Amino acid sequence: MSQHTTLTEMGITSFESISKYTLRQEGDFDILKIYYKREKGSFLPRSKKFRFGRATRTVMVDSGRQQWQEVSEISPFLLRALTELNKLAHEEKKAVDSKEAITENLVHLERIMAEKLAEIRAQLDRL
Fold this sequence. Notes:
By secondary structure, the chain is α+β, with helices and mostly antiparallel strands. It has helices spanning about 5-10, 75-125, and strands at about 20-25, 30-35, 45-55, 55-60, 65-75.
Protein backbone atom coordinates (compact mmCIF):
# COMPACT_ATOMS: atom_id res chain seq x y z
CA MET A 1 0.00 0.00 0.00
CA SER A 2 1.36 3.39 -0.98
CA GLN A 3 2.02 5.97 1.70
CA HIS A 4 0.60 8.58 -0.70
CA THR A 5 -2.95 7.24 -1.01
CA THR A 6 -4.61 10.55 -1.87
CA LEU A 7 -2.13 11.31 -4.65
CA THR A 8 -2.54 7.75 -5.94
CA GLU A 9 -6.32 8.25 -6.03
CA MET A 10 -5.70 11.36 -8.14
CA GLY A 11 -3.76 9.24 -10.65
CA ILE A 12 -0.27 10.32 -9.65
CA THR A 13 2.22 7.45 -9.61
CA SER A 14 5.69 8.91 -10.18
CA PHE A 15 6.19 10.72 -6.88
CA GLU A 16 9.95 11.07 -7.34
CA SER A 17 9.38 13.10 -10.53
CA ILE A 18 7.38 15.85 -8.81
CA SER A 19 9.41 19.06 -8.80
CA LYS A 20 6.91 21.57 -7.36
CA TYR A 21 3.23 22.46 -7.14
CA THR A 22 1.07 25.57 -7.11
CA LEU A 23 -2.36 26.22 -5.64
CA ARG A 24 -4.69 29.03 -6.64
CA GLN A 25 -8.37 29.86 -6.33
CA GLU A 26 -10.61 30.60 -9.29
CA GLY A 27 -14.15 31.43 -8.24
CA ASP A 28 -15.63 28.43 -6.45
CA PHE A 29 -12.72 26.16 -7.38
CA ASP A 30 -9.21 25.52 -6.09
CA ILE A 31 -6.72 24.71 -8.86
CA LEU A 32 -3.79 22.45 -7.93
CA LYS A 33 -1.07 22.23 -10.55
CA ILE A 34 1.70 19.68 -10.11
CA TYR A 35 4.93 20.09 -12.10
CA TYR A 36 7.22 17.19 -13.00
CA LYS A 37 10.94 16.89 -13.75
CA ARG A 38 11.16 15.63 -17.34
CA GLU A 39 14.08 14.88 -19.63
CA LYS A 40 14.44 16.98 -22.75
CA GLY A 41 12.41 15.44 -25.56
CA SER A 42 10.14 13.48 -23.21
CA PHE A 43 6.58 12.96 -24.42
CA LEU A 44 5.24 12.88 -20.86
CA PRO A 45 3.45 16.01 -19.65
CA ARG A 46 5.42 18.58 -17.66
CA SER A 47 2.43 19.35 -15.45
CA LYS A 48 -1.00 18.13 -14.41
CA LYS A 49 -3.89 20.32 -13.32
CA PHE A 50 -6.62 19.33 -10.85
CA ARG A 51 -9.80 21.26 -10.00
CA PHE A 52 -11.44 20.93 -6.61
CA GLY A 53 -14.80 22.47 -5.77
CA ARG A 54 -15.01 24.59 -2.65
CA ALA A 55 -17.64 23.72 -0.06
CA THR A 56 -19.84 26.62 1.02
CA ARG A 57 -21.55 26.97 4.34
CA THR A 58 -23.40 29.71 6.11
CA VAL A 59 -22.01 31.06 9.37
CA MET A 60 -23.32 33.67 11.77
CA VAL A 61 -21.15 36.80 11.77
CA ASP A 62 -23.20 38.90 14.18
CA SER A 63 -25.43 37.14 16.69
CA GLY A 64 -26.96 40.39 17.94
CA ARG A 65 -28.41 41.29 14.53
CA GLN A 66 -28.74 37.70 13.29
CA GLN A 67 -26.44 38.36 10.32
CA TRP A 68 -25.24 35.39 8.33
CA GLN A 69 -22.55 35.10 5.68
CA GLU A 70 -21.63 32.38 3.19
CA VAL A 71 -18.08 31.12 3.57
CA SER A 72 -16.26 28.81 1.15
CA GLU A 73 -13.86 26.19 2.46
CA ILE A 74 -11.08 24.14 0.91
CA SER A 75 -11.89 20.52 0.10
CA PRO A 76 -10.76 17.96 2.73
CA PHE A 77 -9.49 15.77 -0.12
CA LEU A 78 -7.33 18.64 -1.37
CA LEU A 79 -6.01 19.21 2.15
CA ARG A 80 -4.89 15.57 2.31
CA ALA A 81 -3.22 15.88 -1.11
CA LEU A 82 -1.38 19.04 0.01
CA THR A 83 -0.19 17.25 3.16
CA GLU A 84 1.24 14.41 1.05
CA LEU A 85 2.88 16.87 -1.38
CA ASN A 86 4.47 18.72 1.53
CA LYS A 87 5.83 15.42 2.89
CA LEU A 88 7.34 14.68 -0.53
CA ALA A 89 8.94 18.13 -0.65
CA HIS A 90 10.34 17.64 2.86
CA GLU A 91 11.78 14.20 1.96
CA GLU A 92 13.45 15.69 -1.11
CA LYS A 93 14.87 18.58 0.92
CA LYS A 94 16.35 16.08 3.41
CA ALA A 95 18.02 14.22 0.52
CA VAL A 96 19.44 17.48 -0.85
CA ASP A 97 20.58 18.50 2.64
CA SER A 98 22.40 15.19 3.12
CA LYS A 99 24.07 15.56 -0.30
CA GLU A 100 25.23 19.05 0.67
CA ALA A 101 26.56 17.72 3.99
CA ILE A 102 28.54 15.01 2.19
CA THR A 103 29.92 17.59 -0.24
CA GLU A 104 30.99 19.83 2.65
CA ASN A 105 32.69 16.86 4.35
CA LEU A 106 34.52 16.03 1.12
CA VAL A 107 35.77 19.62 0.70
CA HIS A 108 36.90 19.67 4.34
CA LEU A 109 38.74 16.35 3.92
CA GLU A 110 40.44 17.58 0.72
CA ARG A 111 41.64 20.72 2.53
CA ILE A 112 43.03 18.69 5.46
CA MET A 113 44.77 16.26 3.10
CA ALA A 114 46.36 19.13 1.14
CA GLU A 115 47.63 20.73 4.36
CA LYS A 116 49.01 17.40 5.64
CA LEU A 117 50.75 16.69 2.31
CA ALA A 118 52.34 20.15 2.38
CA GLU A 119 53.54 19.52 5.93
CA ILE A 120 55.12 16.17 4.98
CA ARG A 121 56.80 17.71 1.91
CA ALA A 122 58.23 20.47 4.11
CA GLN A 123 59.66 17.83 6.47
CA LEU A 124 61.25 16.02 3.50
CA ASP A 125 62.81 19.26 2.26
CA ARG A 126 64.35 19.87 5.67
CA LEU A 127 66.08 16.47 5.61
